[in-house]
């Protein structure tokens, strides 16, 4: 049983699981009703493909307020209303290239046990991955959170897998999986589906299943990162 908590102001973490446009976010619904206290769990938690539970924290209007607050508000609401009681996995989809304190809430408050950094072989992606490792290091020393590993989303840059493996080694971690680039992802997105739902027998679906199995098998094997300074 899986719960996905989207922690990105774009609120697009769960839409393909729900086969819909972006779902109503905790912050949007709270603004409409008056406050978070006026919400029920079923207002914000939707069930999608294969029974996956989905929540989007949302964020303020562009240019107004702090998006990180949405993450904090949402996670507190979910805890108080028992959203975590009946799940085996909770996945927080966190904006990686912004290391503001609010987005780091799942790390900071020991909500997350393992962090997987999705990156590519592009220079800015490598830079962002190292920055995230610095954030994890800050909280790993005093808490239980660990770096699970890197997941490389292929962008077809030169020697991409070599770069990903080299960075993982520098960070005292490992490359969990190298996900090849395939246009079937865009075909599935246009139909508001994940690849596993749209083309379950495709090679790309097999790649995602391999990734899921590797994350499952890697449970408890995370490390304290050694970021490049």
Automatic annotation (TrEMBL):
Is Iron included in the keywords of this UniProt record?
A: yes
Molecular function (Gene Ontology), one example: ATP binding
Q: What is the required cofactor set for this protein?
A: [4Fe-4S] cluster
Keyword list (alphabetical) reads: 4Fe-4S, ATP-binding, Iron, Iron-sulfur, Metal-binding, Nucleotide-binding, Oxidoreductase
Q: Which family does it belong to?
A: Belongs to the NifH/BchL/ChlL family.
What is this protein called in UniProt?
Answer: Nitrogenase iron protein
Q: Which organism is it from?
A: Rhizobium sp. AM1
